[in-house]
Structure formats: C-alpha cells, structure tokens
C-alpha cells in the first residue's frame, strides 16, 4: 500500500476485529503439547490415556467442576447454624473462582458445551442452591437461584479481569448485600398487597 491508496485500512481493520467479536471468543484448556511438556513426556504419550485432545479437555473440565461443587457443598456442610446458608454458598463459590481463575474462565466464560460427565455434580448443587433460595423467595426459588448465580458470577468475573478497580467493598460484603436485597425486595412486594413494587 502507498499513501496514494485511498483505502482506509485502519478503519477496515478495526471493523473486521469488531465483526469477529460478534461471536464468543475461545477460552481454551492448555494445549496437549504444553501439558505433555509439563509432565516431561512426548505428546504421543498422552494418547495412551486419552483417545483425543477433546477427551483430555473433558477430564480437566470435569475435575475442576467437581472441585467447585465440593468447595460449595463442604462450606455449607461445615457452616454454623447461625450462618446464612446463602451467604456461605456465595462466599464459597466466589472464593473458588478467585483461587482458580483459569479454570473458572474455562467453566463459565467459554461457549463450549459442558461435558456430560458433570451431570452427576451440577443438578445436585443446583437443587441445593434452589432450596436455599426458597428461604428468600418461596414463590420463585429457581429464578432467585439463577439471579444469585448471575451476581456471584459477575463478582468473580469482574474481579478476575478488572484487578485495578477499587470495588469499595469485599466480595463477601457484596454477596451479603445481594442476599439482603433479595429478602428486602420480597418483603416489599408482599407489603404492596398485589401492587407492583419498584
């Protein structure tokens, strides 16, 4: 290209990149080669244990998801009776995500399908969180559980990526404010005698 070329390549490059961002971007398990190198073996040795790179990826995702579920369930099982179980669950979820940033991104910031092998873990934890959400919203516990997860996810994801920001409160304080807001909103709705509460 020369200066005489009237084509605005800079704008085209930006537009092309924006077009590519219309689809979710890849968040990937480390490559098979890099994993083999970390173990001090040839990449071909991996195939003795995993028929394909996809099988290795599924095993990694399954292990990390099981670790998350175990962290939340263990925290709930060990909680004091005086503790708010939703706060305990949210704290455990957030703490796990902060401690496992790459795994968290892979589990919840990727558009890849979750391996079927995780089916035994997911519904068990989901059912438990829905039952806990029933304490603050007995009429729509599933929707409230999804709202809780959405905010917990936002707390983890933003703090992983925006480390320079001053959030003004700890992740645990944010979690408690969320749970309090849910309970307060439910009480406000009940006090309107059928009128819409804003």
Question: What is the mean predicted local confidence, pLDDT?
Answer: 83
Number of helices: 9
- What does the largest sheet look like? none
Can you tell me the overall shape?
Answer: globular
| Beta-strand percentage range | under 5%
State the end-to-end CA separation: 58 Å
- Helix share, percent: 55-70%
- Quaternary structure: single chain
| N-to-C SSE string, H for helix and E for strand | HHHHHHHHH
Overview of the structural elements:
This protein is mostly helical and 198 residues long. It has nine helices and no strands. It has helices at 9-20, 32-39, 43-46, 53-78, 85-99, 101-108, 122-133, 141-161, 171-191. The protein is globular and about 65 Å long. The N and C termini lie far apart (58 Å). The relative contact order is 0.09. The model has no long low-confidence stretch (mean pLDDT 83).
What are its keywords?
globular; 0% strand; mainly alpha; 198 residues
Chart the SSEs and their pairings.
Elements: H1 9-20, H2 32-39, H3 43-46, H4 53-78, H5 85-99, H6 101-108, H7 122-133, H8 141-161, H9 171-191
Helix pairs in contact: 4-5, 5-8, 5-9, 7-8, 8-9
In short:
It contains 9 helices and no strands.
